[in-house]
Amino acid sequence: MLSIQIRPAIEDDQPAIHRLIRQAGINPLGLNWRRFTVAVELSGVVVGCGQLKQHRDGTVELASLAVVPRLRGEGLGRRLIEALIGRGPDELWLMCRSSLASLYRKFGFEEVEEPEAMPTYFRRVRGLAGLVHQLAHTNEHLAVMLRQSSQRAESS
What we know:
The chain has five helices and seven strands. It has helices at 14-24, 76-87, 101-105, 120-136, 150-155; strands at 4-8, 36-41, 46-54, 60-67, 91-97, 110-111, 142-148. The protein is 33% helix and 28% strand. It has two domains: 1-89, Gcn5-related N-acetyltransferase (GNAT) (Aminopeptidase); 91-156, no CATH class. By secondary structure, it is an alpha+beta fold. The protein is globular.
């Protein structure tokens, strides 16, 4: 087991969060350290991050998940996802490349395929991403996924 602490981000983590997001090639917009959870080595180096991003309509998105390349495959992403889910609301959304959807299914996320069932923000981003993927001639698509806590899902 890696000796890495998972904790809420502090203001001093902001440069490391930006660096991780740039390295991972993830959307660099909306990176407010207050929403982040980070993975930190004993030396104090931030080696992973993720955020719970609240949208105008009140939906919350698990976003900006990144781990340094040398630690990928060591379970750090799983630990960050679990920490974020633990801090998140009953209903948690995310967007990912379709090739990563199976990873998030392990955490209770299910792909929402009907645009009408998506909050406006996710529907718009998925539509724009669809155009980009068509132009790039790729088989990937942007998966919009939803996780509902078991208690809430059972009452629906």
